[in-house]
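INTERNAL AUDIT FORM
Audit reference: QA-55
Scope: verify that the stored structure record matches its stored sequence.
Auditor: D.O.
Record contents follow.
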Amino acid sequence: MKYTFLLLSLLLIPSFTEIVYAHTVDAVGEYRIEIGWMNEPVMSGETNGLELYVSPLTVCPDISIPMECANSQEFQNGIEGLKNLLKIQFVYDKTETITLPLVADHDIAGKYYAFITPTVSGYFQANLIGKILDTPVNLSMHPPPISERSYIEFPESVDLALNEVINDNTKFVEQIASLENTVQNLENTVQNLENSNNQMQNEVNGSYIIGSVIGIIAIILAIIALVKIRKN
């Protein structure tokens, strides 16, 4: 039983290695092109880089298809001096594009990097544009897909920085709403005071008029009384 389990493990390990660290290989003219991610599996929201290997393509007498010929070979004798001649254009969903320069590896000739932080999961298209020495290049390749980061986060997906920003914005919005309520209450108070003042002013004006009329009537009555006294 133990030997059976060990045998199965040995058989499965290479297959997992091929899945996790898969690279895509193609050919352009006399050159072999290989691309793959630096860190695999690739997760959304994490900075990564696409590895590009460029080497001479050895002629395959028995293989007529260039891509299959390139797949039958390994990277060796890499082509140097291409970082200013080639660029990689990432395409997502056929609408979002970004073109990135290449950075040469200091230790391996013919190996280059294009760094990127994918924000979403899914499949990306990598267009290699420019030229390899004197050979024009316009090649579309498809590196392994990008996985959703939340799938491997445990116990839950947490982004402290994002949460802090959200919390701060929420508090700020609440403070603004509180200030707006305070201003509205002040406006209502001022309006009520103005209405009260107007009412009091109207009452004062009315009392003044009534008092004036009564005074005039009293004066008239007094005059009539004096006239009657003099006649008697």
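Auditor finding: record pair retrieved intact. Confidence is low (pLDDT under 50) at residues 1-20.
Action required: none
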